[in-house]
């Protein structure tokens, strides 16, 4: 097992009661190559009204590999770092490289968030 795999399995062991309700930032800030979706543009598959992904369950691998650190643990990040409130999200890079990279993805309209 690589150091990155150990870190990811440790993260996966954290419990979380947080939901994506009211946040669609990953669907607007992240690039999704399988959908030809550029970064900082809303995904064509957003259900709208804060309801999230309209193709959930059939969403592509790039979306499935995404790991939002705010949602992933009740203890890693404080509640005030809810992405729509602070203007950025923190995402775990999907590669197995070590050291693990954490991406800071700011909203297009709030580049200094």
Helix content: 10-25%
Q: What is the radius of gyration computed over CA atoms, rounded to a whole number of angstroms?
A: 14 Å
Order the strands across the largest sheet as they lie in space: 1-2-3
Mean pLDDT score = 82
Distance between the termini: 36 Å
| pLDDT < 50 stretches | none
**What gross morphology would you assign?**
globular
What number of structural domains do the residues give? 1
Number of strands: 3
Helix/strand-derived class?
Answer: alpha+beta
Q: What percentage of amino acids are in beta strands?
A: 5-15%
Number of separate helices: 5
The helix/strand series, from N terminus to C terminus, equals HHHEHHEE
Outline the biggest β-sheet: 3 strands, antiparallel
């Amino acid at each position: 097992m690589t150091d990155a795999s150990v870190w990811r399995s440790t993260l996966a062991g954290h419990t979380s009661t947080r939901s994506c309700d009211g946040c669609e930032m990953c669907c607007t800030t992240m690039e999704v190559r399988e959908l030809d979706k550029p970064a900082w543009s809303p995904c064509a598959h957003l259900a709208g009204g804060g309801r999230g992904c309209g193709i959930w369950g059939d969403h592509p691998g790039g979306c499935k590999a995404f790991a939002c650190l705010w949602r992933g643990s009740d203890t890693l990040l404080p509640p005030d770092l809810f992405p729509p409130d602070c203007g950025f999200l923190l995402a775990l890079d999907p590669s197995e490289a070590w050291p693990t990279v954490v991406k800071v993805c700011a909203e297009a309209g709030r580049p200094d968030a």
